[in-house]
Amino acid sequence: MINAKLVAQSHANHQSVIQLSETVAFGGDELVIIGGPCTVESLEQMETVAENIGDAPVQALRGGVFKPRTSPYAFQGMGEEGLAVLAEVRSRYNIPVITEVMAISQIEVVAAHADMLQVGSRNMQNFDLLKALGQAGKPILLKRGLAATIEEFVMAAEYIVSHGNPDVVLCERGIRSFDTYTRNVLDLAAVAALKQITHLPVIVDPSHAVGKRELVAPVAKAAVACGADGLIIECHPEPEKSVSDARQALSLEDMVNLVASLKPVATAVGRKISNTNGVGLQPTPICRAA
Ligand code: PEP
Ligand code: MN
Question: What percent of the chain has pLDDT over 90?
C-alpha cells in the first residue's frame, strides 16, 4: 500500500491533464515528445535543433543549463547564459522549453525562462527542493531516482503536490542494476504501475535508460506501447561532439525518423502525435529598429 493522498488515483479518480503551453498538454490524447541535447552549448546549437526537429514534430525542447555531473571537473552547464539561449529559442520558434533545476536558489530564475522545471534523478529525494517547487508556479518534470522504489517516487511527487503545485509529470528513466551493458534498466512495469497508482501523467526517458543511441528507438516504441504519455529523448546536431552523454545522443535526422516510426505505435494505443506548436517552426523574423 502506497500512502499517497493527493497524487493517488483514488483521490482525483481521473487522469490529470497538465498544460505545458496553450497547445501542449501531458496526459491527454496527444503524446508529448520532448527532444534536445543533454546540455545547452550555444544559441546556434539550440536553433539548429529547433529548426530540424520542431516539425518532426516534437512538442517541446529540453536542454540542461545547470548540469548534475558525476565529476566536479566536467562542464557544469552554461547557467544563466544558457537560460537566455532557451528563452530566445522559445520565443523565436514558439515552442515550450524545459530545463533542470538543481537548487532552491535556481528556481526563480529558471521559472522565469522555462515552461517546465526538471528535477533530475539525483535530486528526487532532495526534500527541501521538492517542497520549494510547490511554489514554483510552473509544472515539474520529476525523474525517478537512480535507485528509488516506486513508492519513493510517488511520495516525492506527493511532496511537490502537497506543497501547492498540482502539476507534476513523472519520468521513468531507468534504475541501477547489476548489468552494465545498458546504462540503467528501464522499468516499463513502473510506467504501467504508476498510471494505476496515480492520476499523474507518466513519460519515459529511453536515452538515460539505455545509454546507447542504437537502443533508443526500439525502447521508445515499447514505452509508447505500454501507455507512456510522452517521451524525452536526447539528440544533438553533432552527437559525437556532445559535451555530455554523447554516446546516447541521436542525430537530428535519427530523431525525426524515430518520431515518424512512433506514429503507428501511438495510433495502436489510441494516441496522436500532432504538431501542436501552432505556427510551426518558421523562426519569427528578428525586428531591427529602422
Ligand atoms: C538529464 O536529463 O540530462 C539527466 C542528467 O538525467 P537523469 O537526472 O535522469 O540522470
Ligand atoms: Mn543527459
Answer: 92
